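BUG: 3D viewer hangs when loading the predicted structure for this chain

Environment: internal workstation, default settings.
Expected: structure renders.
Actual: progress bar stalls at 90%.

Input used:
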Amino acid sequence: MNALRGQLELWRLHLAVIVLGVIAELIGIRKIPFGIGAILLLPLLYAFVMAALMNPNVMPKFAKFIRQKEVQAASPLIVIAIMPFIAKFGTTIGPAIETIIEAGPALLLQELGNLGTIVLAFPLAVWGLKMGREAIGATFSIAREPNLAIIADRYTLKSAEGTGVMGVYVLGTLFGTFIFAILASVFASLDVFDPRALAMACGIGSGSMMAACTGALTEVIPGMKDEILALAGASNLLTYATGLYAGLFIALPIVEKLYNATAGKNDLATATKKEV
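Structure tokens produced before the viewer hung:
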């Protein structure tokens, strides 16, 4: 009863979420042609920008409507909002388990490629950009919904790790489809990789990125459209199934150990100097 009363007191927050969500959906998906690809602007991006602008710490004039009380209450609600995504993944994976098994070992092993974010991004984040623990959340995965859930459960999204994963998530939402469309077009045109391998690479656990990637591939190789879509779909589904566990039990522990073994020592030394 007290919990219900507390939520009713936050009516400003719930009203703002509903209004911003409706506005974002009414704007819809906007496609901006750019060279051989396109930038897709999704409703999620509009909602994020509008909500950020309504934060009284960003725009003080909104403090009369969105108080610090609502700001503090909004953070834990993100976890609740993510849970339907995780439930959806489970209901999608179960009925398609036979398809996943039939996909073969190549499709299963390609999931290990997602660990490439650690090899490529972690050194740049820690030594190049001098990031703190934000590097853990930013580099252990490609930062889609399942990965947000992992960080939210392990550290909370209010932590430094949460800041890192949310930053990559927002940037991926804005530029991910464009980058994937460009890369798919370039690699398909070079004729270096098998089109089936490129199709499997399109399935990284993001529906919008997979759509942009397969769209670019089918434009370059129209004769393999059905096979490209089938492989990309199976790969995307498999990433939903295994990506969560690979991130939780493999990628995240590796990044934590790497950070503690490298940047973590520097953090401890800096903290010790400050105390002295």
